[in-house]
Amino acid sequence: MKSQTMNESYFHNPIKLLHHLKDAGFTEKQAEAQVEIMSDYVEHEFATKKDLKNLELATKRDFKEFELATKKDFKEFELATKRDFKEFELANKRDFKEFELANKRDFKEFELANKRDFKEFELATKRDFKELDLKFDAMFKDFELRLTVKTAAIVGSIVGFFTILDKFIK
Fold first, then answer.
1. In Å, how far from its chain's centre is CA 78?
2. What is the pLDDT of residues 66-81, one digit of tens each?
3. Are residues 140 and 76 in the same domain?
4. Do residue 7 and residue 17 come from a single domain?
5. 31 CB neighbour count, 10 Å cutoff
6. Are 15 and 23 in contact (CB under 8 A)?
């Protein structure tokens, strides 16, 4: 058993305190007033073992509730994070697919435009060569005509020379 100090025994036994105060010279009324004040104070200000036990149980309950709520919150956070990551992953895949399709479409358009441009270049080059060929033919025919005329003139001059020479020699 625990030994109680004199002060502790008075708190638990107000009659003992009343007698002690009277023995110390307090009047009956003074001793009763002191005991009443002390009893009210003890009753309202000091925690009893029962109060402490209730506090301990309440604290354990609150801690358990907090622990469960924290686990629940963490689980919800984990699920939300997984869901968000999955949504991000799907959006990323969708965006990549859209990018890939747009890239293929753009490349196809570039390829078609390149083929069209090359075809236009090829046609323009053929047209330019045809024009040059026609110009060359025209220039060649003009040169041929001038050469023919000059050759005819030279031949005519030579024939004329030989005709005159023939007349002088005969």
1. 19
2. 999 999 999 999 999 9
3. yes
4. yes
5. 19
6. no
pLDDT in tens, 79-106: 999 999 999 999 999 999 999 999 999 9
| Size (the chain), residues | 170
Domain count, the chain: 2
Residue type for 150, please? K
- CA separation for the pair 46, 17 (Å, rounded): 17
Domain that holds residue 110: 47-169
- Verify that 128 and 141 share a domain, yes or no: yes
Please name which of 18, 45, 44 lies closest in space to residue 32, comparing C-alpha atoms: 18
Token pair of 31, please? 């001793």
Q: By the 8 A CB rule, do 28 and 35 touch?
A: no
Instruction: Read off the pTM.
Output: 0.41
